[in-house]
Amino acid sequence: MKKIAIYEKYGINDLGDFSEISEIIEKIDIESNNQIELNLKHCFIDYPATSQIIDRILDQLKDLKGIKKLLILHDYYLPESTILNLLLLGSQFFNIQADKELKIEELKNIVNSKILSYNINLEILVVNRADKEVQKFEYGKI
User: Fold this and answer.
1) Phi and psi torsions of 105, nearest 5°
2) For a Cys staple, 68 with which of 17, 34, 36, 81, CB 3.0–4.6 Å?
3) What confidence tier does 99 reach under pLDDT thresholds 50, 70, 90?
4) Is 123 helix (H, G, I), strand (E, B) or coil?
5) Tens-digit pLDDT profile for residues 16-68
6) By three-state DSSP, how is residue 65 classified?
7) Radius of gyration from C-alpha coordinates of the chain
8) Are residues 70 and 36 in contact, defined by beta-carbon separation less than 8 angstroms?
């Protein structure tokens, strides 16, 4: 599994500075790995740049053969609708507008429909300070 840790690798926790984030996005290369762990622990994710990081990974995953998986780690306990809206705010991959919060069922339908078409499993895992699972959300389970 290829691991991409934004805070640990780049020292950035505020994903609101697009000029900094755009440089990181350009460097993301999954190197044909079909299992990716995106570590967003210690990061403020309520910016469209977050979805652009996720989009970059999904755009690379979709072109690979077989079943793929994107695991997103985060460390803030949030309701499913909130965390999904924050992570996918302005996503081009999912065609989600940056200025519109969606209801959970609508959002889950969009996510599942899109990732299932590319054989991608998406898992969001919220962990505590000891890296123990607090909550897990799964989409596109194949």
Assistant:
1) -65, -40
2) 34
3) confident
4) strand
5) 877 888 999 999 999 999 999 999 999 999 888 999 999 999 999 999 999 99
6) coil
7) 14
8) yes
Distance CA 139, CA 142 (A): 9
Closest by Cα among 83, 85, 94 to 116:
94
Locus of tokens 């890296």: 131
The tokens describing 21, both together, are: 């984030």
Task: State how far the Cα of 46 lies from the Cα of 53, in Å rounded to an integer.
Answer: 13
Non-local CB neighbours of 107 within 8 Å, separated by 6+ positions: 81, 84, 85, 88, 96
E strands, 23-119, where?
35-39, 68-74
Tokens coding 16: 């609101």
pLDDT tens, position by position, 60-92: 999 999 999 999 999 999 999 999 999 998 999
